Amino acid sequence: MKSIVIFASGSGTNAENIIKYFNHSAVATVVQVLTNNQHAKVLDRSKKLNVRTLVFDKKDFLLESTILNVLKKEADFIVLAGFLWRVPAKIVAAFPNRIINIHPALLPKYGGKGMYGMNVHNAVVENKEKETGITIHYVNENYDEGAIIFQAKVLVESNDTPKEVAEKIHELEYEHFPKVIEQVILKSNG
Fold first, then answer.
1. What are the strands, taking DSSP E only, across the chain?
2. pLDDT tens digits, residue range 4-40?
3. Which pTM does this prediction carry?
4. Positions marked catalytic
5. Any idea of the CA torsion for 85, 87, 90, 96, to the nearest 10 degrees?
6. 54 and 34 Cβ atoms separated by less than 8 Å
């Protein structure tokens, strides 16, 4: 059984979905949720699901080896579920092809620093895109540039608001993210 550590910065709906999915998996389990936001709702969601949490600061993450040491002890795989900081090179190097992120657009479009959440959906609507979707990818040292694992698309109607686009994206995230994580883990074993 592989262990997953999730990084999240916000409400934690994707983290909760992943935790619940792997509660019934023979492949992996979520052992801990780490956050850089002491007020993140993901902390409450995780505690209700009996998953340990840890709040950390930039120094622990970027300068010291505090978080790297936690990960080496706890994680076989790392999942970013709404985590907004760039992962330091030392963590990427310690977990090659074992850090998975989800992006709420079809990369390479609408990726990079500052392109998250409603910023992405606003840009998609403003640019009158006909489709958008999710991209699940490996993490490297740059924002949203790791190798793509999976993409799923959804149509953007001409009258869709950014909020409606966000709802469509969330449905894709909930449907696909846990399954793709599981497939990556299974593939790494074989």
1. 2-7, 28-35, 52-55, 77-80, 99-103, 131-138, 148-155
2. 999 999 999 999 999 999 999 999 999 999 999 999 9
3. 0.95
4. 103
5. 170
6. yes
